[in-house]
Design a protein that fits this description.
By secondary structure, this protein is mostly helical. The chain contains 14 helices and four strands. A hairpin with a 6-residue loop joins strand 1 and strand 2.
Length: about 325
């Protein structure tokens, strides 16, 4: 006589009540922060986008009357991206030399130059500083505190300090026996800004990289030494792969900051055209036309967002990914 096979018990429905309640409480705690972000970040961004599609108010040259701006369409964006201006007859022409619109792509080039050069130097020097500060030696705490001094100094003070040092009769020319006009000539002024920015911000990079070094377990290095790995091999195959997430996050933060560079070149070189960045162009334009400056601000925001997207998605600069996950992947 055949017996029926025992049927497996049907799975019991999962209880979702406590989970849903926990989720609701979590949203309740996060809601004030989200509301603050919407007010502080969301509203200015939306307002800037709306203003960017409006004409700047001014004087109608045909009537001599003050008129409101009205709808501008994409003319504010074409003014910057295509360097298009409007003449006295209302016709679209290429922006003449000296007009702010003609300086846009030059400012983009200067901004990208500063970002690439300074971030590269700061990441390289910061890595070396972090490797030194990560070792155990007498006076390490004092060294770590001293390294952070340049970063703690206000940028305006740093700019004035280096401006005095790069003066024609300043310390730099006296030490090297030169007579370079650092803050006026094109390339000397750019290199002066790069040197000042690297001096100030490298400690920030070193601090972030040092935090990544601290979480690498020492037993990994001990095992490598037992296997006969040299110092260079340990650095190449252990330190750099495990440090990659922290290093890329440091590069991401610093790159976004460098693309917004304003006060250092503005103070050191007195708004020199050779060192004029996008942020400086936004401030200059805001004095004559807020709506056109808003369009430039939106373009700057999109540029920084695109760079951040490439670093996060393309290069793997993920702040959430830990060194533990990186170690397991290898």
């Amino acid at each position: 006589m055949k017996t029926e096979a025992a049927q497996p018990d049907s799975p019991k429905p999962k209880r979702r009540g406590p989970i849903l309640g926990l989720t609701a409480r979590a949203w309740l705690f996060v809601a004030p922060v989200l509301l603050a972000l919407i007010v502080v970040v969301g509203y200015p961004v939306v307002r800037a986008v709306i203003m960017s599609f409006q004409k700047d108010a001014g004087i109608d040259k045909s009537t001599g009357m003050f008129v409101d701006g009205g709808n501008a369409g994409f003319s504010n964006y074409t003014h910057w991206l295509l360097q298009q201006c409007t003449d006295s007859l209302g016709q679209t022409i290429s922006c003449p030399t000296g007009n702010s619109g003609s300086e846009f792509w030059a400012a983009v080039g200067v901004t990208v130059f500063f970002a690439v050069v300074t971030v590269t130097l700061e990441a390289t020097i910061g890595l070396g500083m972090a490797m030194i500060m990560g070792k155990t030696f007498k006076g390490r705490a004092l060294l770590r505190a001293a390294v952070l001094i340049p970063w703690a100094i206000p940028t305006a003070v740093t700019a004035r300090l280096w401006e005095f040092m790069f003066h024609v009769d300043g310390v730099v020319n006296r030490v090297f026996g030169t007579h370079i006009v650092w803050t006026v000539d094109t390339w000397p002024a750019r290199f002066a800004v790069v040197i000042a920015d690297v001096w100030k911000t490298t400690p920030f990079m070193a601090l972030l990289i040092l935090a990544g070094l601290q979480v690498i377990p020492g037993d990994v290095y001990e095992a490598a030494r037992v296997d006969g790995a040299s110092a260079w091999q340990r650095f190449r195959y252990i330190t750099m792969p495990l440090l990659k997430p922290a290093l890329l996050v440091a590069v991401l933060f610093r790159t976004m900051d460098a693309l917004r560079l304003y006060d250092l070149p503005a103070i050191m070189t007195q708004n020199l055209g050779a060192t004029r960045t996008i942020s400086m162009l936004v401030v200059d334009q805001s004095r004559s036309g807020a709506n056109s400056a808003s369009a430039l601000s939106v373009i700057t925001f999109l540029l920084i967002f695109a760079v951040a997207f490439v670093l996060v998605k393309g290069l793997g600069a993920n702040a959430v990914r830990t060194q533990e996950e990186q170690r397991e992947a290898h």
